[in-house]
Amino acid sequence: MAESVTIARPYAEAVFRLARDGKALAQWSDTLKLLAVIAQDPEMVQCIGNPKLSADQLTQLFVSLSGEAAKNADVTGFIRVLAANERLSLLPQVQEIYEQLKSAEEGIKEAVVYSAFPLDDAQVKNLLGQLETHFSSKLQPRVVVDAALIGGIKVAVGDQVLDASVRGKLEAMATALKN
């Protein structure tokens, strides 16, 4: 897995620079999402792995499936480069890395919210407002249910962790009692 991310990174960075310079971050984001979905389709996975299909044929296939997005010469060129280098299967990783770069450019950080119970949209929205104030940053939440927390939440933003879980408080009490 780490190897594919390492290989995908230069492509994602190149597309990011192209999108940033062209002030088209959102358009490229949508395009890469579409291309990643196409690349993950089971029939397309077979086509990508088929040695009988040339890079030009794969490029034409991707372009035909991309619809409006492929009318952009940069998108077509990007698909052509990936096909020529046999990297079309890396489109999901390219898209993921691109989104990370885009979020960093826009000043948005990912907040992983670990909760003992599922949170509804209203709870996430309310929590997000408080967390953005605490972390002084715009946040993109990702909620993970972790029953081991017993209750409360634990939030990780980059290398900062805010632990307001019952388990965290019990561990803090145990540490205090030992000392």
Features:
single chain; 179 residues; alpha+beta; Peroxidase, domain 1; Glutaredoxin; four-stranded mixed beta sheet; 61% helix
CATH superfamily of the largest domain: N-terminal domain of the delta subunit of the F1F0-ATP synthase
Q: Taking strands numbered 1, 2, ... along the chain, how are they ordered across the largest sheet?
A: 2-1-3-4
Major beta-sheet overview: 4 strands, mixed
Structural class: alpha+beta
- Can you give the mean pLDDT? 92
CATH architecture classification of the largest domain: Orthogonal Bundle
Number of strands: 4
Catalogue the unreliable spans: none
CATH topology of the largest domain: Peroxidase, domain 1
C-alpha Rg (nearest Å):
21 Å
Strand content: 15-25%
In percent, how helical is the residue content?
55-70%
- N-to-C span: 42 Å
The DSSP helix count reads: 8
Which CATH class of the largest domain? Mainly Alpha
Q: Spell the H/E element sequence.
A: HHHHHHEHEEEH
Number of domains: 2
Taken from the alpha-carbon principal axes, the silhouette is: elongated
Keywords: ATP synthesis, Cell inner membrane, Cell membrane, CF(1), Hydrogen ion transport, Ion transport, Membrane, Transport
Main location: membrane
Function: This protein is part of the stalk that links CF(0) to CF(1). It either transmits conformational changes from CF(0) to CF(1) or is implicated in proton conduction.
Pfam families: OSCP
